[in-house]
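User: Please run a holo structure prediction.
Assistant: Happy to. Please share the sequence and the ligand.
User: Here you go; the ligand is magnesium ion.
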Amino acid sequence: MSQSTLILECTEADLRKAGELIRAGQLVVFPTETVYGLGANALDPQACRKIFQAKGRPVDNPLIVHLSSLEEIPAYTQKVTDIHRKLMERCMPGPITFVLPKVPEIPDIVTAGLSTVAIRIPSLEEARRLISYAGVPIAAPSANLSGEPSPTTFEMAYHAMAGRVAAIVKGRMCEVGLESSVIRIDKNRLELLRPGYVTFETLLELGKEFGLDVIDLSQVSQEKPLSPGTKYTHYKPKASVYLFSSLEDILNPLITIPSSTRILCTKQSGSKETFDKIVALNIETVVFENTQDYARHLFFQFHRADREGINTVLAFYPPPEGIGLALRNRLIKASGGRFV
Ligand code: TXA
Ligand code: MG
């Protein structure tokens, strides 16, 4: 079903218009600091159902509810402890999502029937202004079709969602480029459910400060799968993605590099000699300054590869430090865990 999609700017008048559309039960795509979101009134089950239809998303995958300020959190959550409050004050607004017991006003469709709700306050000011104009919490997954890379530019969001939503708010390229870190606190344990921009190291420091053990529950799906299968694929471009831990791996004479291949790597992916040898092979190579820059541009590069008809992407699998952990998580899913 195709509908005409309004393109809105980040002006006050347009953000107000976007807020009105949300309140009226329509879908609106909007920028955040992480990725573009596909938003609907989180209190309106009919509106939220449209999110799943527009994305082709399985209904057993719950949505994140976006709020504009910390003061709104008690209205939608329960059992918020002192520790929760202190951690939230420290980390929010920002690229982090807290999972908490929900109130009955949050419909089951939003939480996929779970008794908990995921809450996030974006640090991008335009996103928070939109939420306050809407006057309701906004349920929003990433604005991609299910399984595809999340949009980090207006063009990507337009490509995925034009004709499927009432409006798209045009913002800049997302600063972070990967989705938020999803966490939960269980008694004295802080659990990382999805790695994101707020790193495990930062969580460890916060844990030390607030007397919490910090554990990474996302590691379960982070392992190099023994039998890589499509059930792991997500964030996936049309091109086949293969990972490598060092540029040296690509120089292995036993490997045939298909034509129409692009390499994504950082300056830390190999020695100067290796880079010279790669140049001699004449494979198109995108070299990022560091892991952070790589993380910011990964989804955009996947999109660009598809637009340019690239068949194979060879992507550097970075060390797990800092944002590297989140990047590895997305790369494993995009590649199905396949290494060169
Ligand atoms: O950065 C982000 O988080 C972006 C922007 C738009 O805010 N949103 C995003 O949403 O990435 P989505 O739907 O693509 O991912 C939501 C994640 C999923 O992994 C989902 O399973 C998890 O949050 N989630 C949502 N509600 C949950 C809950 N009640 N318990 C555990 N995990 C939950
Ligand atoms: Mg997503």
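The first helix runs from residue 12 to 23.
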